[in-house]
TrEMBL record:
Residues 65-140 form the Pirin N-terminal domain. GO terms for molecular function: metal ion binding. Residues 207-309 form the Pirin C-terminal domain. Belongs to the pirin family. This is Pirin-related protein. Fe cation binds at H74, H76, H118, E120. It comes from Cytophaga hutchinsonii (strain ATCC 33406 / DSM 1761 / CIP 103989 / NBRC 15051 / NCIMB 9469 / D465). Its cofactor is Fe cation. Binds 1 Fe cation per subunit. The keyword Endoplasmic reticulum does not apply. Keywords: Iron, Metal-binding. PANTHER family: PIRIN, PIRIN-RELATED. InterPro entries: Pirin, Pirin_C_dom, Pirin_N_dom, RmlC-like_jellyroll, RmlC_Cupin_sf.
């Protein structure tokens, strides 16, 4: 689009289209009901394809869960998952023996590396009220040199994620959570050490942005040659670089130009994914992301042979005690409690 920082505008599908170095992004919003004694839905599951429920019936999904919503144990290799929770509770377990519970405002950054099994369940911890859930899962590629690093995860607790708050000239507020990268004087938490995001020159940034109704805010420019995508996922309408944008659209931007964002009559919510491209071949098949077809075949063969270490937990839909707080238990035995 000539004379504007906007390169392209597209409606959002499922999953969301991403740019190198990102390879996948989904937005889940579920208005889960009250939880039963097993932290599953306290209502009938009739009419759902259990084990493969993405119907959106009554405003929520079971996903691959049979008794509890979520994603029972499944493998990954060759990339990283960044799980950004805006509301709700997630229970994590993996084949390394690591585990955790995290909730609204927290982010889990997991390097799958050479291969890991993990489970992401959504326990309905409240039995006296609904259990709304909103999250993004973002897949960030690993460069060829890091495809076979040791898997591990890191928690970015909400208490440690910097938040920029700015007012425009009319007193309307913009709030930005700096999950990764740098924004003005704010620096996101350190990602996992083998991540493409760990190298400052790669300019990886993950931001969640909320503009109050009628607010105006300028997204600062960065270096040229960086891929930059804004996802407008909640609100009614807004302007980006003086161009009208409808909700549930992505906007690809030139990275070396400041961009003015203007909210309409409702609060507007956006996700920014940005980074220097790897410019490496990408071959994805389901949960494996490698550089060649042969590497994909090798990943399947190794998974069938080793199960990436096997599953040390009693349940495929592993969840923690209802009364458990936020915590992370790492494979080396180190434990964090929040």
């Amino acid at each position: 689009m000539e004379g504007t920082p906007i390169i392209q505008i597209k409606p959002l599908g499922f999953p969301w289209e991403t740019l190198d170095p990102f390879i996948f992004c989904v937005h889940h919003r579920d208005d889960f009901p009250k939880g039963n004694d097993n932290m599953g839905p306290s209502v009938s599951l009739a009419g759902r394809t259990i084990g493969q429920d993405f119907s959106g019936k009554e405003g929520w999904n079971m996903y691959h869960g049979k008794t509890m919503p979520g994603f029972p144990y499944h493998p990954h290799r060759g990339f990283e998952t960044v799980t950004v929770v805006k509301e709700g509770v997630i229970d994590h377990t993996d084949s390394l023996g690591a585990a955790g519970r995290f909730s609204g405002g927290d982010v889990q950054w997991m390097t799958a590396g050479k291969g890991v099994l993990h489970s992401e369940m959504f326990p309905l911890v409240h039995s006296d009220k609904g259990n709304p859930m909103e999250l993004f899962q973002i897949w960030l590629n690993l460069p060829k040199r890091s495809k076979f690093v040791q898997p591990h995860f890191k928690m970015l607790w909400k208490e440690n994620i910097p938040v920029l708050n700015e007012m425009d000239s009319n007193g309307n507020k913009t709030e930005v959570n700096v999950i990764a990268g740098n924004l003005k004087s704010f620096h996101g938490p350190e990602p996992t050490p083998d991540s493409w995001a760990a190298e400052q020159g790669n300019d990886v940034s993950i931001l969640t942005i909320k503009l109050d109704a009628h607010a105006t805010w300028t997204l600062p420019k960065t270096d040229a040659g960086v891929n930059r995508m804004l996802y407008f996922y909640k609100g009614s309408s807004m302007k980006i670089a003086a161009t009208d944008i409808s909700v549930y659209h992505s906007v690809q931007l030139k990275s070396d130009i400041d961009v003015i964002l203007q909210a309409g009559v409702e609060d507007c919510y956006l996700l920014l994914l940005q980074g220097k491209p790897m410019n490496e071949p990408v071959v994805q098949y389901g949960p494996f992301v490698m550089n060649t077809e042969e590497e994909i075949r090798e990943a399947f063969a190794e998974y069938q042979k080793t199960q990436f270490g096997g599953w040390p937990w009693p349940n495929h839909e592993q969840a923690h005690a209802r009364e458990s707080g936020r915590f992370a238990l790492h494979a080396d035995g180190r434990e964090e409690k929040m």
